[in-house]
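User: For a benchmark we're assembling, each entry needs the component sequences followed by a predicted structure for the full assembly. Here are entry 17's components. Please fill in the structure.
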Amino acid sequence: MLAVRQLEAGYGESVILRNVTLEVQRGEVVCLLGRNGVGKTTLMKSIMGVLKARKGHVTYSGADLTKRAPGERARRGIGYVPQGREIFPQLTVFENLLLGLEATPGKGRIIPESAIMKFPVLPTMYGRNGGDLSGGQQQQLAFARALASEPALLLLDEPCEGIQPSIVDDIRDVIRSIKAEGGTAILLAEQSLEFVKSVGDYFYILEKGSIAWEGGLEALDDEVIRRYLTV
Amino acid sequence: MDVIVLQLFNGFSVSSILLLIALGLAITFGLMKVINMAHGELIMIGAYSAYVVQNLFLSYMPSSMFNWYFIAAIPFSFIVAFLIGLLLEATLIRFLYGRPLDSLLATWGIGLMLQQLARTIFGAPNVGVTSPSWLNGGMTIMGDVVLPYKRLFIIALVCLCLVAMYVYIYRSHSGRRMRAVMQNREMAACLGISTRRVDAMTFAIGSGIAGIAGCALTLMGPIGPSIGTYYIVDAFMVVVLGGVGKLIGTVFGALGIGLSNTVFEYWTTASLGKVLVFLCIVAFLQWKPMGLVAMRSRSLD
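Assistant: Structure for entry 17:
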């Protein structure tokens, strides 16, 4: 459903990603691993369109999105939970969630029950400003905001970064339940090996801006981990 | 007692005019961070729009209708300034987002061009706009204190604009989109909001409100092509003193400047009063650089 072909991207003069090719199938949880600074976030941004691709293609459900704006990609069904959450600080929690509906106009202005149910803590904070929430709460809000548009593909960029263990467990449960429902594919960039092993179907390891290794859960053995992921 | 009431009223009146001219800027500068030096000229456009409506009523409407021209002039001024703001945004401002110095110079140039355009169309001398007769005179309270209807009308108009802006920005769908884009443009785009359309609408609304301010200024005296330059500094003062980005801050900024201006002018002279007000503003901003109402949030720390 999502296919990235020979993607090259970077900031200004510097090239961060070279010749990246990966695929996400419908309903699958694909994990993106790699040490710090190998280009995981850059790849996420290029898939969302925040960063323009220099070369290569991003296709989604058969359509070439390489030249499309982020908003267009969102309307086609890609949800994005960026690194650092990017909550609107001066908007209330409820308003933040309502903005998740912008990608699906005409569906009415109701946040789908399925998005809220996964984060029962959110409705108790509807009136508070997004910026006043703790990091973990903001992460849950960003996640729910992306789910409000009922995306067919969800991009999760380090959802567990700097989050307390109990919320990490909640997020793990949410990812599992999305997987069980089967309607949404997930591309997950994450540092925690233990976390991705517990939810992932297929794995890509980035090194120096290129895909260095790919394979299923059983192939991700100690040798691979030692070679590409140990610091 | 009479003197206190009268000075207080004068203070509120000055504040209301300051607020009206600063409200549009609170959007274009406060929310969008565009240093729009042509804001004064948008006020001028609103004023001339009122003049045009007056002349149209004189020429084409029965004289019994003339008194109501001003009611038509307010929305007309808004629409004209709105459309010019839309044009300005589409052709110039949108290339200058995030470049404050460039936008300052470019909009100043636009301001000069608009002034010259007004001079070409309407002539260099000031033109008078006759106030409708129902705004002449005043309300007498406490025996001999007269509150002019025109000033009361401007205060009411400001309140109306303020309520309308509040409802639009904080209660409507498009206002929510607008705040989202101003707070985090990239993320708003990722959620499917058309940032281009929001930018254009926001700038145009700020311009339109400047038009309403210009329309109201025709009540205070004759208008000329350079009327905007008298008000641009005050408008920026109000927004900066109030705290950039908050509507309520602009209200406090206008009240602070307007009331202290009246007090200082009463104690000293008109020009010395103005100097003292500016000194106070400079001193205050040294102490609190963020203005009266600063945005505070965990995510901004």
